[in-house]
Structures are given as structure tokens and as C-alpha cells.
Specification:
By secondary structure, the protein is α/β, with parallel strands linked by helices. The protein is built from 21 helices and 23 strands. The longest helix is centred in the middle third of the chain and has 28 residues.
Length: 574
């Protein structure tokens, strides 16, 4: 049985294909449109999933859409009637979006001449499914936290074998995600998805404003979370869409300025006040998350916890969950954000609705597009590029030596990753020992804020040597403390608070990337490389031409496409 999952007309549109419960492929539409967080109907992603699996649309049994306009309909009506005078703009936007969702069948038929039966899956149930069914746990507590989706902002469930039962949910608008978004705007980061910048800024400050922020949103034993509505303006909605791009209108009121002081404009300098507000927000949100998770433990006493939703991308909080809750084991999928809705919807249909048996766990995010050496060679030859072909036995020692000499490398290898993190398939790689690497990468290659940290990819077998209370972290989804005696060895990936957002690299999951780091370890005694996404203020590169274009317009020293090496100067093979 084949189920095609879609996240559409919602930020981070995507498609994923399941065949007999096994994940065949998955990709985000932004990788094709080159527009971050693209939010329409993901036809490019659908085409990729079908072509990659050598299937036609007629061979798909069901299409699962991670959106169900029918859920909580009376609560939606009640909310709009209660807020009719102030929410007309929001209602108009929601109705337009709903109309897009219900017209999907016709649009697919227009393109393909046929549309398989469509099954709708509630937004947060899709999140729960994406986390639970990809885990190795036969039973677990499952939690989804994000801004909002299908009129919920938080959902707690329990997974047992092939079924997920919802235990509690929180209705829109009270939302941990919207709290974080409001402060993201207040701190001068106006775009959808900028929350990770606030998380990256938070370790530079002190939590001086906890008491103030605690007045805005708090844990509630009965309701799970509650907030003071006077700080939030949702008259234009929590999110709108223009030309298939998510736009977040200003959602904080002037009460926040009265409470804390003037907000930061986009291009204003970042000062200690902004750092302290970010630190306070992060600390408070972590506290609420831990309380919610402990409440979830009370509802379903399991040692296992699976988490998804936009807030599950808060890797700083994720790294502290096992220490601050009663859970012993944690799984977070590679696409915990809304792109994972496509995969979760397909899994929910196949396992929960159709009651099929579970398949193996997912620890490999390489589900996207792939190019072999023959295809890469043709692309390079067609544009008359100068390159050198190197077999693996020579390639990886060569690259390790160049990285050790402070060269920065664009590394394009195998299938693209599914999710927001580059994991060694579409990565920029550098030497973690180089104290100047963070400044170089931010200013000359990534073209982004100087405070933004970089991640250490570490060989799994050395994890405990470098990290306190090490946890296997295959998708770069957790921040852990680096051991104090190791921090001076890897300054480029050690954040200001002594932490690092690690990626565990296991040989059986990523053999070529593991080999590269192993060669670097042989040469330097350091089993770690800097790993950041292969892009420059755009979606991560997807195809060889995008990698070549990024290489040409930035200060990357080398580009590796499969087994082909491109250099801006003469290559020294010694």
C-alpha cells in the first residue's frame, strides 16, 4: 500500500511517500522553489516523490493531508463570534486558506487527470505521528507544541503499537509558540521562522526579565498553559500568506513595550538588553515546556517521550528534557517542524487509521533528491567546469588535510536531508579548532548575524568523551554541554555558555561522512568537524548547480560534488 503525505497551504509545504509503511522519500517544496518556508501546494515535491519511486499518481492508494478543516469547528465559530469586531481580517484569511485546502482534489486532477482518495489528518495528530511512528518505541508519551494548527497549539497523546490516543489539547490562541514569535518580533527579527535567532542569541545574556515574562504566559495545572491576552494582537491572525509565503503580522501589543521598554528595529544594533530579554524568554519557555512534559508524564506514565511541532526545534530546550523531566528516553524526528506534517499524515493514515503493523525506526534523514557521479559529471562537463575526480580512498584524506589547513569546503553528497538541518549531505564543513572560523563563516560565506553558532558533527563513538551526559543526537536536534577540558580544543563549535548543538555521526547511517571525520581525527586527534547548512540566506542547496552557484559567489575554498572536487585555485594533492 502506498500513501502520499502532503503539507500544503501551510508554511514549509512538503511531500512524503510511504510504501507498506516504509518511508521511501520526503522533501520540502522550498528546496525546489528556492523560497524559504514556501506554503502552497507542493507539486515539485509530489513529482519528486513519484519519479524517485518510479510510480504514477494512479498507483497511490491514498493521499494524506496534514490538515483537517472540520476539527474543532464549533470552537472556531465560538472564537470568531466572540471576537467578531476585532478578527474580521483573520477570519477572511482563514477562509481563503480553507478554500485552498478543500480544492486540492480538483487541482491534482487538473495536473494528473486523476486524484487518489484524500484523507485529512488533524495538524497536531500529524505532528504526533511523525514523532511516534518514526521512533523505536512500542509505547510512548507523545507531545506536539507549536504556534497553531487546526485551532490547537499543544497536544498530548499516548502511542501504543499502531495507535495514537489524544489525551489533552490546548485551543488557539493560547500558545507557547506565539509567545516566542511575539518576542522574536519584539527583538527585531521580523520574518517567519526567525525564532532560532533568538534561541542562538539567548546564551549571550542573563535572565534578568524572568518576572516580567512570567506575567505574560504561564503553566496552568488545569489548562496546561494560560496567558494575559492584553499582550497579544491577533486581529490579523497569527500567520497570513502572500504569494505562497508565510507572513507573520505584528502579534505583540504595546503593553510589551510598556512592560520591558522599546522594541528593537530590524537593523538596529544588538545590545545587552536584547541579549538579556532573549535569555529570559528562553529560560521561561524551557520551564514551561518541562512542566507541560511532566504533566504529560502524569497522564501516561511511560519512560519514553516523542516530541514534534515548531517548539520541538528548540534544540537548547531539547537537550535539557531528560534532566528536567521524569522521562528516560527521547526521540525527535529530523523534521519536527511543519515540513514533517506530510510524513506524519501519511504515517497516521497507514498505521492508525488502517491499523497496519509498525515498521523500523528512522534515524537516517537522507530522504531527498540524489545525484550519482555520472549525473554530476555531465552537469560539470556541460558548463565546462574544471574539476578533479578522486576515489574515496584518496578523497577523504585529501579533504581532511585541507580542512586542517583552514580551508572551508562545500560538501554535496548523496540524498538531500529531510528537515531544517544539514547533516553531511548538503553541508559546509570547516575545522572546529580554528577560533576564527565562526566569524569567517558568518561574515564571508553565510552572510548572517555574527552571534549565530555552528554545530559540531562528532563521531558517535567519541560522544561521551566530549559531551557531559551525552545523548545520541542524529538530527542535530539537541544542545548539550561540552566537557570543560575539551572546550579549548574546539572553540569554533563551543558556544559562549560552553554548549554545542551536536550531530552524532554513526558509521552505519552516514558511512562517507563518518569516513571524512575519521580521517580528520587521524590527522588532528579531533573527531569533530564544523557542520553548517550549504546555503547563503536561501534554502539549503538541493541540486549540483545550486551548490556550484553558491561556491562561485562565496569564499568557499573547495567544492565536493560526489567524488568531484572543484577549487578556486590550483589543487595541491600532496
Amino acid at each position: 500500500m502506498k500513501v502520499l503525505g502532503l503539507n500544503c497551504y501551510h508554511a514549509d509545504s512538503s511531500a512524503a511517500l510511504l510504501a507498506d509503511g516504509v518511508i521511501v522519500n520526503a522533501t520540502e517544496e522550498e528546496r525546489f522553489t528556492r523560497i524559504k518556508h514556501w506554503a502552497g501546494l507542493p507539486f515539485n515535491s509530489i513529482e519528486f516523490c513519484l519519479n524517485d519511486a518510479k510510480l504514477s499518481i494512479n498507483e497511490i492508494d491514498f493521499i494524506a493531508i496534514g490538515r483537517d478543516p472540520k476539527v474543532k469547528v464549533f470552537k472556531k465559530i465560538g472564537y470568531f463570534l466572540k471576537n467578531l469586531s476585532s478578527s474580521s481580517g483573520m477570519l477572511k484569511s482563514r477562509l481563503e486558506n480553507r478554500n485552498n485546502v478543500v480544492s486540492i482534489k480538483n487541482k491534482i486532477e487538473d495536473i494528473y487527470g486523476y486524484c487518489p482518495p484524500i484523507l485529512n489528518v488533524e495538524h497536531h495528530r500529524s505532528h504526533l505521528a511523525s514523532a511516534f511512528y518514526a521512533s523505536k518505541f512500542k509505547e510512548a508519551t507523545v507531545v506536539s507544541i507549536d504556534g497553531s494548527g487546526d485551532f490547537s497549539t499543544l497536544m498530548i497523546g499516548k502511542g501504543r503499537n499502531s495507535e495514537i490516543e489524544v489525551l489533552r489539547s490546548v485551543d488557539f490562541p493560547v500558545s507557547i509558540g506565539l509567545l516566542y514569535s511575539a518576542f522574536t518580533q519584539y527583538l527585531g527579527f521580523p520574518y517567519y521562522g526567525d525564532e532560532y535567532k533568538v534561541m542562538g542569541l539567548s546564551p549571550y545574556g542573563e535572565a534578568k526579565y524572568l518576572k516580567e515574562i512570567e506575567q505574560i504566559l504561564w503553566f496552568d495545572e488545569e489548562k496546561l498553559i494560560n496567558w494575559d491576552t492584553s499582550f497579544f494582537d491577533l486581529t490579523r491572525g497569527a500567520i497570513n500568506y502572500e504569494n505562497n509565503q508565510p507572513i507573520v503580522p505584528r502579534i505583540y501589543r504595546d503593553n510589551l513595550i510598556t512592560l520591558l521598554g522599546p522594541s528593537r528595529k530590524k537593523n538596529d544594533p544588538i545590545n545587552d538588553f536584547h541579549k538579556d530579554v532573549a535569555a529570559s524568554l528562553q529560560r521561561h519557555v524551557e520551564s514551561i515546556i518541562f512542566k507541560v512534559l511532566n504533566k504529560a508524564f502524569d497522564l501516561n506514565k511511560s519512560d519514553n517521550i516523542c516530541i514534534a511541532g515548531g517548539v520541538a526545534q528548540n534544540s537548547v530546550a531539547n537537550g535539557k528534557i531528560l534532566e528536567n523531566t521524569r522521562f528516560k528516553h527521547l526521540y525527535i524526528p529530523s523534521a519536527g517542524h511543519d515540513a514533517g506534517i506530510s510524513l506524519g499524515a501519511a504515517q497516521y493514515v497507514y498505521f492508525h487509521k488502517l491499523k497496519n503493523k509498525r515498521t523500523s525506526a528512522l534515524y537516517d534523514a537522507n530522504l531527498g533528491i540524489e545525484f550519482n557521479n555520472d549525473q554530476i559529471k555531465k552537469i560539470l562537463d556541460d558548463q565546462k567546469s574544471q574539476y578533479t575526480f578522486m576515489k574515496d580512498e584518496y578523497l577523504f584524506p585529501f579533504l581532511a588535510k585541507r580542512i586542517s589547513e583552514e580551508n572551508v569546503i562545500g560538501f554535496f553528497d548523496g540524498r538531500a536531508e529531510f528537515g531544517p538541518r544539514a547533516l553531511g549531505s548538503r553541508s559546509i564543513i570547516a575545522d572546529p579548532r580554528n577560533p576564527r572560523a565562526q566569524q569567517l563563516l558568518n561574515e564571508k560565506i553565510k552572510k548572517r548575524e555574527s552571534f549565530r553558532p555552528f554545530a559540531p558533527s562528532i563521531l558517535e563513538e567519541f560522544g561521551s568523551d566530549y559531551f557531559i551526559d551525552y545523548q545520541f543526537t542524529p538530527f542535530m536536534e539537541r544542545v548539550l554541554k561540552i566537557r570543560e577540558d575539551k572546550r579549548s580544543l574546539i572553540p569554533a563549535v563551543t558556544h559562549v555558555d560552553g554548549s554545542g548543538r551536536l550531530q552524532s555521526v554513526r558509521k552505519d547511517l552516514r558511512p562517507r561522512y563518518h569516513k571524512l571525520i575519521s580521517e580528520f581525527n587521524k590527522l588532528t586527534g579531533i573527531p569533530i568537524l564544523i557542520n553548517t547548512s550549504f546555503n547563503e540566506n536561501e534554502p539549503v542547496v538541493n541540486i549540483p548547480q545550486e551548490a556550484i552557484d553558491t561556491f562561485n559567489r562565496t569564499e568557499l575554498d573547495l567544492l565536493v560534488l560526489g567524488n568531484f572536487v572543484l577549487s578556486k585555485g590550483k589543487i595541491n594533492f600532496e
